[in-house]
Amino acid sequence: MGEPAGRALRADAERSVRAVLEAAERVLAEDPGASMEQIAAAAGVARTTIHRRFANRQSLIEALALSAARQLAQAVDDGRPDTAPPLVAMHRITANVLQVKGAWAFALELPADPDSEAAALQQDIDRRCVAVLTRARTEKLIDESADLDWVRRVYYALIGESLRGNPDGSDPDALAARIIETLLHGAGPGA
Questions:
Q1: Alpha-helix runs per DSSP H in the chain
Q2: Tell me, what's the pLDDT at 52?
Q3: Taking 60 as the threshold, does the pLDDT of residue 168 lie above it?
Q4: Is there a smaller number of Cβ atoms within 10 Å at the N or the C end of the chain?
């Protein structure tokens, strides 16, 4: 016996929305002024499909930002920030984040409305990052006098610069190891 019709339709609608969001990322990364019609064409869906799913271009942009923020939050969760040893969690999270940020660079650069779910997800990611850094400090991986919010900002900058310097998305594990090594040991002797 096959799937119930409603479930099959929902799965089809979800695939259609995913295709639109993936196409929006590609098209808008190249041309931020691209039209809904250009995005629909790149997604391989009818213009009416994209308009049925998104009331206007702004709602598509908001959905794109939210989808990317959710994927970023999932990447952090998959690194087990609360339970894995801090160094393991930092490496896993960094490799995961590099993959998501590499695939969704345009969407993750969009400014989020401060009251949006995307902004709340980013605040939670920031909080979880500081929690992992706190655990790393407890394990003496980070100096006890370090300003952890500053360390978080430096860590984010290292990720951003790594992505700019490696647009082809080099091996995320190797790049994550390099980022963590730089964050924890800098560029001094023995680094």
A1: 5-30, 36-43, 47-53, 57-78, 86-103, 105-109, 117-138, 148-165, 172-185
A2: 87
A3: no
A4: N
